[in-house]
Design brief:
about 270 residues; six-stranded parallel beta sheet; alpha/beta; three-stranded parallel beta sheet; single chain; about 45% helix
Amino acid sequence: HFVTTFHGTYGHEGKLKRRYNAIMLKGERIIANSDFIAGHIEAVYGQPASPVITIPRGVDMARFDPARVGPDRLTALARRWRLPDDLPLVLLPGRLTRWKGQTVLIEALARLGRRDLLALLVGDDQGRKPYRDELIALIDRLGLGGTVRLTDHCTDMPAAYMLADVVVSASTLPEAFGRVAAEAQAMGRPVIATAHGGAEETVLAGETGWLVPPGDAAALAAALEQALALASDGPGRLAVAAAARAHVFERGFTLSDMCARTLEVYAELLESR
């Protein structure tokens, strides 16, 4: 038996590349990690002969659980990042690559015109030093040296999300699923994401976060203003936190659901023999 899983859009420019990727259509069952990817398969390759089954990526809800992140972990990470005690934190996790939208967030913060916050871009440049240098230059040019910081890969993302007042996913290309948005909501954090790709499935606009047009710094700035206002609204913040974590469970964005549904696919094929 042969099962394939689409975890992304993959490069599909040109007939040769699409033909190369077409091996993914040969599975007896084809798993897509979001409805967006399921639609992408049909749009790019045509209607597959085998069933396409959407099984979203799963968040480990035992690891990404606010109740399991103690004060010691929060304090240790806050000290390592040298976070001030009195400023709200905007967090954009993601490797430093252009399509992750770090420049869009920086420009949105410049439009916002506030200096009573800290924005942290968390992610390794993976050798893209010119892009890192470009981000630093943009921060300096816009006068955001005291507002935006870059830091490398974080090994304790549950604690990172807990420290954040709002988590941003500003990807200018569609995410296949959008792990950052799902993890942040599992930790009860409001999310601002771009309105394309998997984010349109993982974020409930107006309930667990905001969806903004990709590459639109003005719209992102407006959403940030609303998110930061929520940060100072105790009851409102608690309500969003509860809705966000519940959404992850209800939509099956959990590791246990992902594993169970994947095993069901395998079991069905084995029984068919």
